[in-house]
Structures are given as structure tokens and as C-alpha cells.
Amino acid sequence: MIDYEGPQAARIFNAPVYQTPQKIASHLPDFRNVLNWMPAIIPGKDGRYQTSFYSSDLPGKYIIEVQGITANGTPLTSNTFFEVKAKKSEKK
């Protein structure tokens, strides 16, 4: 048997916002394992949707995974990768 909670209430996804110079310069660790969550995307007439989000400063290869269901009930899935490269050290 598997203990299953069943449907859960919708939650608000909290992501960092870097709007001040202090937050931009901050080097606090980013321990998120989900960088962005958007439960309701409605693409444009061309079928595309554009978004932006802050990634971790930790160098590495990350996956972008999109899962959804079309208006007529067809499931869809797609994924791609992006890479965060190490910052070059600043010369003094």
C-alpha cells in the first residue's frame, strides 16, 4: 500500500526578487530545487510563451521541463537544458 494524500490545495510559489542593489550583490546560498513554477500558462496565438526567472549562481547544467494538458485534454511534455557558468574572477 502507498500512503497517498490525495489532491492538495493550490500553493503560492515564492521566488527571490532582486530589485535592490543590496539583493543583487547578495551571495546567500540558493537551496531551491525548483527555480520556477507556473501552474497556469496560456500561450499566445503563435503557441509560444515567454517568461523569466532567477537561477542559482551555482555553476551547472539545469533542466527546464514543461508539462501540461491542452484545452482538449491532450497531455504534453517538453524539456531543454540551460547552463550556469562560473563567474570570472574580478581583477583588482
Question: What is this structure's SSE topology?
Answer:
Blueprint: H1 21-25, E1 60-69, E2 75-84
Main attributes?
extended, two-stranded antiparallel sheet, 92 residues, mainly beta
Folded structure, characterized:
The protein is mainly β. It is built from one helix and two strands. It has one helix spanning 21-25; strands at 60-69, 75-84. A two-stranded antiparallel ribbon has the order 1-2.
Q: What is the overall pLDDT average?
A: 81
| Number of strand elements | 2
Approximately how much helix is present in the residues?
under 10%
Note the main sheet.
2 strands, antiparallel
Number of helices: 1
Strand residue percentage: 15-25%
Spatial strand arrangement across the major sheet? 1-2
Q: Tell me, what's the shape? A: extended
H and E order: HEE
**Gap between N and C termini:** 61 Å
Low-confidence stretches: none
Which class of secondary structure composition applies to the elements? mainly beta
Rg, Å, rounded:
18 Å
Summarize the structure.
The protein has 92 residues and is mainly beta. The chain has one helix and two strands, in the order H-E-E.
